[in-house]
Design a protein that fits this description.
It contains twelve helices and twelve strands. The chain is of the alpha/beta class and 296 residues long.
C-alpha cells in the first residue's frame, strides 16, 4: 500500500460507528518496503536565523544533503521538544512553530510546509518497546527541525515527523530508547538529531544579533568540543553518556542537557563498522559549537 492510499484510509474517520482501531492501522504499516540503510546525522543547529541566512554553516548543511540518498521520510529529534513521556508527531500537515522571540519579522513569516508522516509515526510508536509512545496531533515542527531542513531540503517535499525528549529521564535512558529506532534506517527514514554539543546561551559573547555566528570559542568550549569528538571517534559511547565525568568544563558546556541529548540518539544508532565524519566544526559566540556529525 502506498502513502496516498494510507492517508485516504486515515481520512475516512469512523468505521462502522467506531474509530479505526490501532491494530487496523498496524496492519497497514506492515507493507513498508525495506531499502538500503540510511546514514544518520547530528546537526549543530545554532540560531534559527540560519533558516533564512546564507552562511558557511547553512552551506555545510546543503552540501551534506546533496551527498545523502533521498529519504522516504525524516525523523528529527529536536532539542526544542521536551515532554513528560515520549511522543511522536502524527499529523498529516504539521504546523511550522516559531518557538523563539526577538528575531526579525521575516523569520516569523517563514514557513516549512513539509507533509507529516502518520504512517511512520505509527511505525515508530510500534517499534519502541521501552516506553509507551503517544501519537501527538498538536506540536508540529519546531525551529530545531525546520531551520535546518529548509536549507537542506528547500522543496519541503519529504515527509517530516518528530520524536520528543522525555525531560524526566537520564541520558542512558535516551540512549537505550534510541537503539530501538534502528529498523527505521532500513525503511528509508533519515534520522537527525538537532541540538548543539556545546550550548551555553547564558555565556554567549555577542554585542548584537549580527555577532551570533561570529567564530570564537572560550577555552572550555573548545576543550569540550575536542573531548566530544575524540570520544565519538573512539566509539566510547559510555563516556559520552556519562559526559559530566569527562571534564570539569562539562557543566559549562552542558548547563542543561536538552541540546546534548539528540547527539546520544544518533550515537546509539551507530553500528560497529560505521565511522563518524565531522563538518561545520566551529565554535561561535564563545559558548556554542556548530559541530555536526555524519555516521555511515
Amino acid at each position: 500500500m502506498d502513502r496516498k492510499d494510507f492517508l485516504k484510509l486515515l481520512a475516512l474517520g469512523p468505521l462502522s460507528g467506531a474509530a479505526m482501531k490501532l491494530n487496523e492501522l498496524n496492519k497497514l504499516t506492515e507493507t513498508f518496503a525495506a531499502s538500503e540503510q540510511m546514514p544518520i546525522l547530528f546537526i549543530g543547529h545554532g540560531s534559527p536565523m540560519n533558516a533564512i541566512n546564507d552562511n558557511e554553516f547553512v552551506a555545510g548543511w546543503k552540501t551534506m544533503a546533496g551527498k545523502l540518498p533521498k529519504p522516504k521520510a525524516i525523523l528529527c529529534i529536536s532539542a526544542h521538544w521536551e515532554t513528560s513521556g515520549t511522543f511522536v508527531t502524527a499529523m498529516k500537515t504539521p504546523e511550522t512553530i516559531h518557538d523563539f522571540g526577538g528575531f526579525p519579522k521575516e523569520l516569523f513569516e517563514t514557513k516549512y510546509p513539509a507533509p507529516g508522516s502518520p504512517e511512520f509515526a505509527l511505525e515508530t510508536k510500534n517499534t519502541i518497546k521501552k516506553t509507551t509512545v503517544g501519537l501527538d496531533e498538536k506540536w508540529g515542527l519546531d525551529h530545531g527541525t525546520w531551520s535546518i531542513l529548509k536549507p537542506m531540503y528547500p522543496k519541503a517535499d519529504i515527509p517530516v515527523f518528530q520524536l520528543s525528549l522525555d525531560y524526566n529521564q537520564p541520558p542512558r535512558y535516551h540512549y537505550e530508547l534510541a537503539k530501538e529506532l534502528a529498523s527505521l534506517r532500513k525503511k528509508g527514514v533519515l534520522i537527525i538529531g538537532s541540538g548543539n554539543m556545546v550550548h551555553n546561551l547564558g555565556m554567549m559573547k555577542i554585542s548584537s544579533m549580527a555577532d551570533i555566528d561570529k567564530e570564537y570559542g572560550f577555552d572550555w568550549a573548545l576543550e569540550m568540543n575536542t573531548i566530544f569528538k575524540t570520544k565519538i571517534k573512539e566509539h566510547d559511547h559510555t563516556a559520552l553518556i556519562n559526559y559530566e565525568s569527562l571534564s570539569r568544563s562539562s557543566k559549562l558546556a552542558i548547563p542543561t542537557r536538552e541540546h546534548y541529548l539528540p547527539l546520544l540518539y544518533i550515537l546509539a544508532l551507530q553500528e560497529k563498522d560505521e565511522q563518524a565524519t565531522f563538518f561545520n566544526d566551529k565554535a561561535i559566540a564563545g559558548s556554542l559549537t556548530m559541530t555536526s556529525v555524519l555516521i555511515n
